[in-house]
Design a protein that fits this description.
seven-stranded parallel sheet; 15% strand; 44% helix; 254 residues; alpha/beta; Rossmann fold
């Protein structure tokens, strides 16, 4: 129970990895705030966890909209108290008939949407919450990058996704240096192929090929990413900052 008395917000908290992260924090004693788009699903999940005795709250918001994020943060903190742990998990990876769009055919609107959801959302939530962390001299931030931010996997993801995941690594390293003197650690996770519903958006042969290229010869599970996230925000990792931790079974070793 290393996160007891902590208040955690998970963006994209209804997705496969996001939900697993939120659930592990709940199990570890934290008060957990989930931000996502589907209000009905979010409220239903919170009702279920509240009935089990957990402290949770949900806010429906487009994480790409700064003002919507501000309103959501105010709403969540009025219920749970000051947020000291931020997990920038929200992300999208559009596919077309199971394949990523070639860069030279990409609609600028699709590029901008991925930039806004995957990258600008991390700025939005970090910008909104870090003043309070600085004031309290404590904070933990974890952003969800990907092995795609460090390696070429063009058969699975498109240029916009890889670009945002690489940018999150730079964002993480900069914030770690800037916020470290204020008692705030900032790290990133780089998952490989994780067994979530998003796998179904890619042709099955691509996933099978990844398994064969992964030394552990399997897909990862959402809870394995969640456990890595909890470690990075726990007291056990208090002297770790500015790092990118692969959760990929050895896939794309660099």
């Amino acid at each position: 129970m290393q996160h007891q008395d902590r208040v955690v917000v998970v963006t994209g908290g209804l997705g496969g990895i996001g939900r697993a992260i939120a659930e592990r924090y709940v199990q570890d004693g934290a008060s957990v705030a989930i931000v996502d788009m589907d209000a009905a699903r979010g409220e239903a999940l919170c009702a279920e966890w509240k009935a089990a005795g957990h402290k949770v709250a949900f806010a429906a918001a487009d994480v790409a909209d700064y003002q919507a994020c501000e309103r959501a943060a105010d709403q969540l903190q009025s219920v749970l108290g000051p947020i000291d742990t931020l997990v920038n998990n929200a992300g999208i990876s559009p596919k077309h008939d199971g394949h990523p769009m070639a860069f030279y055919k990409m609609d600028p609107a699709e590029w901008n949407r991925v930039m806004n959801v995957n990258l600008n959302s991390a700025f939005n939530w970090s910008r909104i919450l870090t003043p309070g962390m600085v004031e309290r001299k404590f904070g933990r931030i974890v952003s969800m990058s990907s092995v795609a931010g460090k390696a070429n996997i063009v058969d699975i993801v498109a240029a916009h996704y890889s670009t945002t995941k690489a940018a999150l690594i730079g964002f993480t390293r900069h914030l770690a240096g800037e916020l470290g003197p204020h008692g705030i650690t900032v790290n990133a996770l780089a998952p490989g192929r994780i067994n979530t519903p998003l796998l179904k958006t890619v042709v099955s042969s691509a996933n099978e090929e990844v398994v064969q290229e992964t030394p552990l010869r399997r897909l990862g599970e959402p809870v394995e990413v969640a456990d890595a996230c909890l470690f990075l925000t726990s007291p056990s990792a208090a002297f770790i900052t500015g790092q990118v931790v692969d959760v990929a079974g050895g896939w794309m070793l660099t």
